[in-house]
Structures are given as structure tokens and as C-alpha cells.
């Protein structure tokens, strides 16, 4: 059975005209008057792209910037997949022909454009000779990061996450010190940083340098200056003793193997009166919820409470407004 990426390469060898002509057309490069039957079959998409370009130009000239932006975003969605597919195809063909430098450059461009199929890339026979190389593995990690950011920033996440309600419930105070463990793309890091203000600080902690690199870009783009980034170990949050007032672990603790030992380290990092906030998925079968943690990583609320109790915490408060997750605030027991 072919992988998704190897299917791309094979299909592209058979249908290179259609894929590459569409992609180049979307980039405004064109190929003269060359026509193929398959290009003709793709022409409705090409006409849609042309219509979107015309809409962007027309609305921008008229000063209707919101309408121009809406059309521009639709244009990106229309051309982006064909763009990185064409680059990926070219990378595979360069690799097959022994053009290593060109193969790597096309692959890097494909990933920069949004290619995210890490597993397919690792299994693609076109890159068999590249698999043991550090540069190839780095690019594969970047492809994974594309996919993970896409998952974290998906347009329908708020259907289950309800971040405004979470932020209201937690009521962060100006000057508060917060550790966002498993910060990822900064989905909560940035609103928390805004809530605690310039007198506060948010430690954005993650085990993946690719996530921290992405978050660093977002912080600089938004001019957020009260977030500190740190790469940490999977079994140690590396918090300063009594260094934070709130610890957030949102959709993160299910990755931790020894939760009791990890939570003890969290307790040491909390200042007196501090709180540990855990939001994680209610266990469900994959047939019912095909996204979210796999069965072996799902943790029941009862099991979570038991683990936190063993680590020296007690339930301070819980909320039940999230449809797919439990939301618990823990405090240090005996205080």
C-alpha cells in the first residue's frame, strides 16, 4: 500500500501537467498556450482563482478592505495546496534524479508553504537515501510542526475549547506569574499574557523547539513582551521553587507518563496560595471521537483526581461547561 506522499509522487509523474500547470498558474508564472485534457478539466478551479484575484483587486481599490481580505483568504485556501504539492513533487523528482541540493530546496519551500505530512514524507521512497540525514529529519520535524499548529489553531476549536469562558473563570490578576506548560502555538499563552499585564509574566514551556519557534514569531508579531520561552524535559517542567502563582496544563498532561512524580514537581513550583489548572479530555472511544488523545493516553477525571491527591493536591474547584473536557483547579493540600 502506497503512503499518501508516495502516491503524490507517482500520481504527479503520471499527471505532472495538471498539477504543475495549475500551481504555476496560481503563482502567475504561466506556460504560454500549452493545453492538455487534464488542464482543461481543472479549468473551473483556475477560473475560480482568477475570479478571486479580481475580487481582491476590485474591493481593495474601492476601499472595501474587509471584503478584499475575505477574498484574499479564500484565494490562499484555493492555491496553497496546489503550490506545496507542486513543490513536493518537484522535490521528489529532483531526489530521484540525484539533484540533492535542488531536492532539499524544493522540499524546504514545500514545508514553508504548508506541507504537513511528516509520516508520508518519512515513508516516501523518493527520499529513501535522505532518511538518515540530519537535515532531512529537521525538515520532517518542521512538517510535523505545520500539522500540529494546524490542529491547535483549527477554526472550529472554540466549539469545544470555549477559551473566553475559561479565561473568565480563571480571572487572572495583573502581576500574576503563570506557567503555561505545553504552550504549543500560544492559544492560551497570549490571552493570559494580556490578562496579567506588563507587571506579570507567563512562562511558555514546551518540549518541542518547533513550537517555541512558532510562538516566538507570534509574540514578536504582536509585540507581546511579558512571555518567557523555555524548552523543558518531558518529565520535568523545570520550574523555579515557589516561582509561579498559576500553572496551566491544557490538553497537555495526558502526554505525561508518570503523572504523580510530575505533579510533585509542579507542587514545588507553586508559590503559597497558588493553583494548578488541568483541562483534559473526557475519555471516549475513537469511534465516537476520532480526534483528541488516543485511548492509551485518555485519563478519567477520577484517575486524575487520585493522581493529584497522591502528589499532594486537593480539588479547589471544578467547572462543567466544556463539552469534551473536564476543567479542574487544584490547590496544595493542607493549605
Describe the structure.
51% of the residues lie in helices and 15% in strands. Helix 2 packs across helix 5, helix 4 crosses helix 5 and helix 5 runs antiparallel to helix 6. The N terminus is likely disordered. The protein is built from 14 helices and 7 strands. It folds into 2 domains: 149 residues, no CATH class; 175 residues, Rossmann fold, CATH 3.40.50. A 7-stranded mixed beta sheet has the order 3-2-1-4-5-7-6, with helices on both faces. With 335 residues, the protein is of the alpha/beta class. Strand 1, helix 11 and strand 2 form a beta-alpha-beta unit.
Give the SSE map.
Blueprint: H1 4-14, H2 16-26, H3 37-41, H4 43-61, H5 65-96, H6 100-113, H7 118-123, H8 134-152, H9 158-161, H10 163-170, E1 177-181, H11 189-196, E2 201-206, H12 209-222, E3 227-231, E4 244-250, H13 259-269, E5 270-281, H14 301-310, E6 313-319, E7 325-332
Parallel strand pairs: 1-2, 1-4, 2-3, 4-5
Antiparallel strand pairs: 5-7, 6-7
Helix pairs in contact: 1-2, 1-5, 2-5, 4-5, 5-6, 6-8
Amino acid at each position: 500500500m502506497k503512503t499518501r506522499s508516495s502516491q503524490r509522487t507517482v500520481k504527479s509523474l503520471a499527471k505532472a501537467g495538471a498539477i504543475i500547470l495549475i500551481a504555476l498558474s496560481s503563482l502567475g508564472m504561466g506556460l504560454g498556450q500549452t493545453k492538455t485534457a487534464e488542464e482543461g478539466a481543472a479549468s473551473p478551479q483556475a477560473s475560480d482563482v482568477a475570479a478571486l484575484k479580481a475580487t481582491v483587486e476590485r474591493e481593495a481599490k474601492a476601499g472595501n478592505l474587509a471584503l478584499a481580505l475575505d477574498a484574499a483568504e479564500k484565494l490562499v485556501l484555493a492555491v496553497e495546496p496546489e503550490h506545496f504539492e507542486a513543490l513536493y513533487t518537484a522535490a521528489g523528482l529532483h531526489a530521484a534524479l540525484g539533484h540533492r541540493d535542488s531536492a532539499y530546496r524544493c522540499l524546504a519551500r514545500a514545508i514553508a508553504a504548508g506541507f504537513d505530512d511528516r509520516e508520508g514524507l518519512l515513508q516516501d521512497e523518493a527520499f529513501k537515501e535522505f532518511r538518515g540525514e540530519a537535515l532531512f529529519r529537521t525538515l520532517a520535524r518542521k512538517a510535523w510542526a505545520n500539522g500540529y499548529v494546524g490542529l491547535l489553531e483549527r477554526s472550529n476549536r472554540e466549539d469545544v475549547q470555549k477559551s473566553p469562558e475559561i479565561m473568565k473563570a480563571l480571572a487572572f490578576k495583573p502581576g500574576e506569574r503563570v506557567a503555561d506548560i505545553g504552550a504549543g502555538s500560544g492559544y492560551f499563552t497570549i490571552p493570559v499574557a494580556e490578562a496579567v499585564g506588563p507587571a506579570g509574566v507567563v512562562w511558555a514551556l514546551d518540549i518541542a523547539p518547533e513550537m517555541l519557534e512558532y510562538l516566538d514569531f507570534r509574540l514578536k508579531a504582536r509585540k507581546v513582551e511579558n512571555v518567557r520561552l523555555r524548552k523543558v524535559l518531558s518529565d520535568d517542567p523545570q520550574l523555579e521553587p515557589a516561582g509561579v502563582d498559576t500553572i496551566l496544563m491544557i490538553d497537555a498532561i495526558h502526554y505525561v507518563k508518570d503523572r504523580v512524580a510530575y505533579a510533585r514537581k509542579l507542587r514545588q513550583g507553586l508559590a503559597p496560595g497558588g493553583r494548578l489548572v488541568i483541562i483534559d479530555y473526557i475519555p471516549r472511544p475513537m469511534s465516537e471521537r476520532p480526534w483528541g488523545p488516543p485511548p492509551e493516553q485518555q485519563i478519567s477525571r477520577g484517575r486524575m483526581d487520585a493522581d493529584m491527591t497522591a502528589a499532594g493536591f486537593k480539588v479547589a474547584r471544578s467547572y462543567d461547561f466544556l463539552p469534551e473536557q473536564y476543567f479542574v483547579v487544584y490547590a496544595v493540600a493542607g493549605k
